[in-house]
Amino acid sequence: MKSSWGQIRSEFPALEQKVNGQPLVYLDSAATALKPMPVIETLYNFYKFETANVHRGAHYLGDIATEKFEQTRSLVKDLISASSDQEIIFTSGTTDSINLIASTYGRNFLRAGDEIILTEMEHHSNIVPWQLLADEIGLKIKWVSVETSGELNLIEYEKLLNEKTKLVCVAHCSNVLGTVNPVKEIIKMAHAVNAKVLVDAAQSVTFLPINVRDLDCDFLVFSGHKLYGPYGIGVLFGKHELLEIMPPYRGGGAMIAHVTKDKTTFLGAPQRFEAGTPNISGVIGLGAAISYIKNVEHENIYNHSKELLQYSVNKFSELDFIKIVGQSSTRVNILSLDCIGMHPSDVGQILNQQGVATRTGHHCAQVLMSKLGITGTLRVSFAIYNSAEDIDILVSALIKAKEILT
Prior knowledge:
The protein is built from 14 helices and 17 strands. By secondary structure, it is of the alpha/beta class.
C-alpha cells in the first residue's frame, strides 16, 4: 500500500461535508461506496475531453475511448484472475448480470422439473429472477438453510444436491450478516453432480481477492458502485465455453456479425451480450476504481476491515441494548444490529441527526429476515475510509438514540 489510511480518507471528498452540523460518518458502504478523487477526475475528464462512442469511430476521440474501455475489460480480468478478456461482459450491475444469466442460460438450458438451489441469505436480486424463471418453465427451487450462527448448513446442502440439480446460486458474502461463504467447497460439491454455479460477489469483491479459476465457478457477478466506482455498471464473468453457447440477451448494434432481411448472425462473447451504446463512462470509471483498489491492495483492505469489525464487536458488547445478528467467524466488514426495544428505522433517523449514515430495514433479504424471525436490522458496513473513531461516534450516537427512544 502506497498511502496511509489517513491519506486514503482525504481522497474521498464526500467525507469533508457536515450533516446536521456534524462531520459525516459514513457506515453504509455495503449499499454503495463513496467515490475517491481518481474516479471522480476520470469521469470528469472523460466528459470534458474524451467523449466519443467506442469501437468504430475513425478518429482520435473514438480511439481513446475504445482503448480505455477495453483496458478496463483487461483490468477486470486481472482483478478476478479470469483466463481471457472474452469472459468479461459489461452489464448495468449485479442485478442485470443475474437476469442475463437467467434469460440466456436459464431459458435455453434448463427444463421443466430441473432444480435450482438457492440459500436463505440471498439478496432479492439472486432470488426473484429465478422465481420468475421457475414459474415460466416449471423449475423447482430448493433452499439451503442458515444456522443461528449466520452460516450455511452445508450438510443440508449436500443432501439437496442430486442429478436434477442444474444450477446453484450463492452469495459469496451475505449483505446482511457479513458471512463469507465457503464458495470453493460449495462449487466443488455442485460440480460433483454436474450442476453449474453462479457466485454473487457484489459484497466480497470489495475486500477479498477473487480467483475465478481457482474457485472454478461457472458465473460470477458484481457491481461497480460498491467497488468505489460509478453507478450503472456491472460485470458478468462466465466461462468461455458457456458464453459461447448462450444466445444474445438483447438485440441491436455492436453485437452482430452480419444482418440481412432474412437473418442476423452474431459475434462471440463478450460482444454478443453488449448490444447498443454501452455505459462508456461507467466502464472507464470502473477501470479507475480497480486501479485505485489495486494500489491499496486487497490484503490491506481485508485486514483493515477485519480490525474495524473486531473493534466494533468489542464496543457493541458493552451496550446491553445492542444484539449482533449472526456470529460467523468469517465476517469482515458488515454487522447487522438488533436494537432491543427500538425500531431500527427510528434509530437510523436519530443517528442521521448526529451525522452517522447507516442502513435500516430488510436489506432486500426478506427470506433471511423471515428465517431469523425479525423484520429488519440496523446495518453497519465499513470501507477503506472508515476508522475506529467512526465506531466511537456511532456508539455515542446509539447511546443517544436509546436515551430518546426508551
